[in-house]
Amino acid sequence: MGTRDQILDAAAEVMHTRGLARTTTKEIARAAGYSEATLYKHFRDKTDLFLAVLTERVPSFSAVLADIAHDPEAHPLRDNLIAIARGALAFYHESFPISASVFSEPTLLAAHRDALTARKAGPHKASAALARYLRAEQKLGRVAHHVDCDAIAGLLLGACLHHAFLTSFAQHPLTPAAARTHATTTVDALLPSLV
């Protein structure tokens, strides 16, 4: 395992246990067994590390969505939405404990938001991607033309984020069976409004 991977593993662990707001690059470097200077050879700052942890150490929701959006007709609409919901649940369940602490301090949140905006990243990207996928399903005739795709994307992802909040608060693990059940019941509740 290379230096960058060791730093990322340490960052994921420290951020998961301490939260993003309370994590420092010095702590991450120490946990990885390197100096801060070595850390900065691989990452610009803590935001860079956070984004790398989200994309490389947390289950990839965007990869699931991109795969489905690439060929939406490969599976029925319901199956696609359940797969998307399961991906979102896994992502939010893992990332919520890391990112929730950033809301504890307004100046930290503002700096974090500015850093994400500068990198053309942010939590709104998932909802926008899901709405694009739903519009593609509209063109295929599998989602009714009157459906507000942005609203449906918000409802589906909101349900997944809410579940992640509740399970994190209760310190319950997200089992595959629980993820499957929650994804299925959520999609089945939304599906009648889509067709």
UniProtKB/TrEMBL annotation:
Q: Does the keyword Transcription regulation apply?
A: yes
UniProt GO MF annotations: DNA-binding transcription factor activity; transcription cis-regulatory region binding
**Regions recorded as binding DNA:** 24-43
Q: Which Pfam families match?
A: TetR_N
| InterPro entries per record | Homeodomain-like_sf, HTH-type_TetR-like_transc_reg, HTH_TetR, Tet_transcr_reg_TetR-rel_C_sf
Per UniProt, the keywords (alphabetical) are: DNA-binding, Transcription, Transcription regulation
UniProt key word Transcription regulation? yes
Show where the HTH tetR-type domain sits: 1-61
Instruction: Report the PANTHER family cross-referenced here.
Output: HTH-TYPE TRANSCRIPTIONAL REGULATOR BETI, HTH-TYPE TRANSCRIPTIONAL REGULATOR RUTR
Could you tell me what this protein is called?
TetR family transcriptional regulator
Source organism of the structure: Actinocatenispora rupis
Q: Which gene encodes it?
A: rutR
